[in-house]
């Protein structure tokens, strides 16, 4: 922002003399030019690492360290990707797909069920339940690492898909999001359905959920992205190599458990492939991400 | 709404059925773990068998005492991790906030074309995996990597980023001509919590600086979106009126925009504080606490004590101390936000923000 400041005095004098005859957008040129310059420099800092990543994953090991800045692999090779198959990358990928899909489906369903109950259904203890959900949101995930392992181990499900999936099937923030959404939509339609004799679940399933589409999409995307990228939970919920997800698998590549030397093309290729699904979801549903992070209040 | 008893009764049952899955899972994997870890943190469990079996002894506050009052390696490691995380927070939170605010202000420019492109470019890293991004930054900051290649292009020789334990302040002092191999006795003779003053005042290590760069780069996009949303609530008329009255852009920023952004600014700062105290992923991938323990953080130390050193009581105790730090920060945030802003939209925003940050460990977790 400070980059636009030097131009400010100049603009002010310019504006005083020129304002009567010029339309407003002609008044300020310098701030706009400087603004663009700053944005483009920063954008380069944001985009270049990804371009480097793509280029390097097609390089040879020596080329990657000799010409780190080059965006053109010389020679071009897919050896890094072929080596990924040897380290069981396909298995990690399928594990991640399976785990993320299970978590996402369950999360969207359970969170909206609970959110709906907390927003609409009159039952004794509702206030206490809602207060607990709020309290739970304050519990920092990272301090639960060891505690979660202790419970998974005691329950005898440590190192199973169950341990990887079930603890993440519900999240308090998602319940909160859904409750806030249901609070914001009018109650009249579902009341009509219920007076017509539809049961509570039926009303929820066939009347309320279809209306909640925007919030459901937001929650689906956030849950998918979150579970696809989940590292700490997958570290403490399992140890077998067969149960590696992409995050733990790639982490083991990097920390050298599965290879030696720099092997940057291999590692960057591994990181590249795991980024693609989330990137696709991001570019397709971008406005839902943006809504999620920024706008927050669903205004409709 | 009908007041017939049948519907009420049905709602009562349905209500509990609807919240049951959430309560069971949260109870089993959130409340129970906390209680169990509380027990382990005052026990001598070694990881063999069940921590609830009768052979596990109660040791009172011994695990906490070893961490907080020492003396010994345990205390020194813990204090080192607190120091490292403190410097990480001290640099990351202001930098990411300023960068996010700056980007939001420029991207929000009324006459700017290509807003969508810039917004996407800055936000994209926030949604990608912390693991993938960490791998990219390991390459960028490797000794023959991109950053050092760029530095050498302008005649500088970059450090061996992830092998350099020197503190930033010590590097600066060294650059100013001070002999950092023999620091003043005043600083080396006095120790607190197992660390000398010289160590406490070292600043983030060179390796930690690379991680700070990564986290600032990644999280600024999310916070930029929060600022952008808030900027959209600033009425254009006020800005224009101020412009008519001859306020320059700096004055408008200082007197109008920033005050109106205050609740969001506050939210971003506290979310930043909460998130950065939990950094784990990036440390796990990039440095595992090395070089010279200068990237050790409480979250990683807790993991390492338990899973690597099998000292579970120790690990659980560290987790609880970290828990207290973060809960205090969270309560502070909630209390202050309640004072400052009663808008219902904001709580919703916090919910989403928390879930987004929950999705990413580190700073954002």
Describe the structure in your own words.
With 300 residues, chain A is an all-alpha fold. Chain A has 16 helices and no strands. Chain A has two domains: 2-82, no CATH class; 88-295, MetI-like (MetI-like fold). With 365 residues, chain B is an all-alpha fold. Chain B has a domain at 71-167 and 203-359: MetI-like (MetI-like fold). A two-stranded antiparallel sheet of chain B has the order 1-2. Chain B is globular, with a radius of gyration of 24 Å. The model of chain B is unreliable at 355-365 (pLDDT under 50). At the A-B interface, α1, α2, α3, α5 and α6 of A face α1, α3, α4, α5 and α6 of B.
Give a short summary of the structure.
The complex is a heterodimer of chains A (300) and B (365). With 300 residues, chain A is an all-alpha fold.
How far is the N terminus from the C terminus of chain A? 33 Å
CATH architecture designation of the largest domain in chain A: Orthogonal Bundle
Rg of chain A, nearest Å: 26 Å
CATH superfamily of the domain at 71-167 and 203-359 in chain B: MetI-like
Classify the helix fraction of chain B into a percent range.
55-70%
Please report the total strand number of chain B as a whole number: 2
Q: Mean pLDDT of chain B, rounded to whole units?
A: 82
* H and E order of chain B: HHHHHHHHEEHHHHHHHH
Helix tally of chain B? 16
Task: Give the averaged pLDDT of chain A, no decimals.
Answer: 82
């Amino acid at each position: 922002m400070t980059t636009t400041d030097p131009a400010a005095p100049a603009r002010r004098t310019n504006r005083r003399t020129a304002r009567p005859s010029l339309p407003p957008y002609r008044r300020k040129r310098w701030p706009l030019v400087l603004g663009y310059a700053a944005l483009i420099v920063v954008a380069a800092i944001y985009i270049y690492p990804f371009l480097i990543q793509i280029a390097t994953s097609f390089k040879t090991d020596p080329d990657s360290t000799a010409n780190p800045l080059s965006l053109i692999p010389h020679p071009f090779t897919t050896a890094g990707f072929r080596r990924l198959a040897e380290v069981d990358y396909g298995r990690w990928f399928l594990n991640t797909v399976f785990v993320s899909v299970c978590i996402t489906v369950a999360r969207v369903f359970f969170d909206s069920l609970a959110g709906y109950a907390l927003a609409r259904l009159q039952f004794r203890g509702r206030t206490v339940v809602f207060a607990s959900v709020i309290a739970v949101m304050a519990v920092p995930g990272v301090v639960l690492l060891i505690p979660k392992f202790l419970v998974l181990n005691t329950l005898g499900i440590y190192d199973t898909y169950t341990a990887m999936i079930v603890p993440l099937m519900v999240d308090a923030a998602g319940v909160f999001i859904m409750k806030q959404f249901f609070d914001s939509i009018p109650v009249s339609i579902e009341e009509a359905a219920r007076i017509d004799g539809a049961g509570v679940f039926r009303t929820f399933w066939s009347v309320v959920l279809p209306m909640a589409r925007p919030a459901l999409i937001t929650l689906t995307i956030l849950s998918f992205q979150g579970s696809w990228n989940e590292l700490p939970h997958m570290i403490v919920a399992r140890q077998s190599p067969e149960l590696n997800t992409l995050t733990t698998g790639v982490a083991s590549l990097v920390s050298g458990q599965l290879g030696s030397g720099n092997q940057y093309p291999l590692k960057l290729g591994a990181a590249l492939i795991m980024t693609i699904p989330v990137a696709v979801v991001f570019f397709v549903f971008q406005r839902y991400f943006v809504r999620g992070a920024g706008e927050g209040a669903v205004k409709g | 709404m009908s007041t017939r008893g049948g519907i009420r009764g049905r709602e009562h049952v349905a209500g509990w059925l609807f919240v049951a899955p959430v309560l069971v899972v949260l109870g089993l994997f959130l409340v129970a773990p906390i209680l169990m870890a509380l027990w382990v943190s005052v026990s001598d469990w070694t990881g063999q068998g069940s921590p609830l079996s009768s052979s596990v002894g109660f040791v009172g506050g011994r695990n906490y005492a070893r961490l907080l009052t020492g003396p010994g390696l345990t205390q020194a490691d813990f204090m080192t991790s607190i120091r490292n995380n403190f410097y990480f927070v001290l640099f990351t939170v202001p930098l990411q906030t300023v960068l996010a605010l700056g980007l939001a202000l420029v991207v929000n420019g009324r006459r700017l074309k290509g807003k969508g492109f810039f917004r996407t470019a800055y936000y994209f890293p926030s949604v990608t995996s912390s693991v993938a991004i960490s791998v990219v930054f390991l390459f960028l900051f490797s000794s023959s990597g991109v950053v050092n290649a760029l530095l050498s292009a302008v005649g500088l020789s970059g450090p061996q980023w992830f092998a350099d334990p020197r503190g930033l302040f010590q590097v600066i002092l060294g650059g100013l001509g001070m002999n950092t191999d023999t620091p003043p006795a005043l600083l080396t003779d006095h120790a607190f919590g197992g660390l000398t003053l010289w160590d406490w005042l070292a600043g983030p290590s060179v390796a930690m600086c690379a991680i700070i760069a990564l986290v600032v780069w990644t999280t600024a996009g999310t916070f930029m979106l929060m600022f952008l949303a808030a900027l959209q609530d600033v009425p254009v008329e006020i800005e224009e009126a101020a412009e008519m009255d001859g306020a320059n852009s700096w004055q408008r920023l200082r007197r109008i925009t920033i005050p109106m952004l205050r609740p969001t600014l506050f939210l971003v700062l506290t979310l930043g504080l909460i998130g950065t105290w939990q950094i784990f992923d990036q440390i796990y991938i990039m440095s595992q606490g090395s070089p010279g323990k200068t990237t050790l953080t409480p979250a990683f130390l807790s993991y390492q004590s338990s899973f690597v050193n099998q000292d579970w009581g120790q690990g659980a105790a560290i987790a609880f101390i970290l828990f207290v730090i973060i809960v205090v920060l969270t309560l502070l945030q909630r209390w202050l936000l309640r004072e400052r802003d009663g808008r219902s939209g904001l709580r919703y925003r916090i919910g989403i923000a928390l879930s987004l940050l929950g999705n990413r460990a580190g700073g954002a977790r």
